[in-house]
Design a protein that fits this description.
Helix content: 10-25%
Structural class: alpha/beta
Number of helices: 8
Strand content: 25-35%
Shape: elongated
Distance between the termini: 103 Å
Length: 542
Amino acid sequence: MTAMDKKTLRQDNAGMSLLELVVAVSIFMILALVLFRGFISSSRLNKKSGIYLSATTMAQNIMEEIKSKTFAQVALAFNYPINPITNENRFGFLQDLQDTTTDGRESSVTTKELLKSDNTYKKARLYEDVGKDADKVTASILSTDSGKTYTFLPKTKRTSASKYYFSMENVRNQKNTFDALVEFDGSKSSGYKKGSSSKVSGKNDYLMPNISKLDTEKNAFLIMDKDWDKNAMDTMIKEQHVEAERQYLIDKDSSEEPKELNYEEVYANTKRILEIKVTKEAGVVTAKARYTLWAYNYKNPENKYETMSICPCGGKNLGKSQSDSDWIQNCFCTYVSAYTAFYSSEAGNDLEGIYVFYYPNYNSTSSVNPLDEIVVDNTDNLKFDLYVTKQIPMVKSSEDATADLVKNLPTTTQEANYRMSFTVEENPTARGNANWNTNLGLYRAQIRLRSNLDYDISNLTQSSRPKLNQMKLTYRETTDSGLVKKATGNSAKTVLDFNSLDDKEAYDRIYTAKVTIYKEGAAKKNFPDEDKILTLDGSKEN
């Protein structure tokens, strides 16, 4: 090999030049930057997808929870989330997902009912928020014992009628925290009520035995559920069971251990008293109502401990309220609700009518001590028509979820044997009729009574319904001297100008349901659109 060949060979084996190295490194850095940006974008996308998935799961949990409850139970859960009897969260998924305080009574999640006005939300007032004044409660739930028992107050007036709003704050799923807004709408805008331009009736227009086409500004409506207060009855039964077990252990009885009482049996034998009080002050007419559940007489003859008669009050709280000084404490056989206003007029407006709807307890067959009782206090002597309607329960025609509702008519025997007490109290003396009771054929009360009581409703195809003797009707005045003047039976019917009725009303049985998930802190900012993550739409049947 020549010298020239050796020199050429050495040059061919030389390393990379500095320029080549700089170019290679530059290319690598450009590629690395592109890849790094891809990693960042992918990471951000994964995080966003994770948040969206977590929010979707949360919305689904909320929607499933509200569909599994009655509407009143949903409202109760938002207003009083912790059940004071069990110390558990009424929302099952929160019980598993949320931390609680050491006493187990409070969830880290804040739930509340909201009132909406001009796209602004504010917290609805509970009984505890307004100094225990039931008239000032704006929430749809009235509870005088922190959610132990409750009354549902439907929204029926003005622009807020059939519309409800609830919120959850600081609700967590995995590592994410959200706020949630839950909206229900059973109004015309929901599509479930016939609008002004529509000729087709919606599900919430379906008629029940009620009144529907009256001016709500001048007429009051009081609709009692079939179970006047299931929550209160459940509580009474649970507390009875605790006392029964306590006595059983003290007695060291060899008989069978007491079981929890059967709800249907107890309720069928419970005395129910509905009290309505109508007053006028400063030109404003107010109608309030409260009810009493008295189960003292119930007993299971097969077990001496399975009876309400072991109640510490001995049944003596009947006719009292918890605020009375002689109310016997720890009483579980008697429940008395708070007086709740179901009507308040505009100043200067007169009350035209009060419409009361209830389901009869057909176990009430004693004319001496009936289980059903209604008392109307009109001692302010206001003039109005009083409509009292026995309602017919509606049941599904089959077990199919889409089955139509049909009337579950009482039997002719049930109607024939049903007995109830009905009392109207006024003050005729204050109207200059001190001797009203001396000629009952001429005197007329301020109230005119219209009712299907004393009429057989077991067969709706009859053009003329048979008359019965269901009411123990009394018109009464109690003077300052304590003297009681009264008219009963047919005389009371004459005084009250009693006549029959046959009217119907629609009620909200289905709502649109919308669950919107927001970023944490959105509730405090009035749920701005920029914090919205997703919305899940559905419906809620009641």
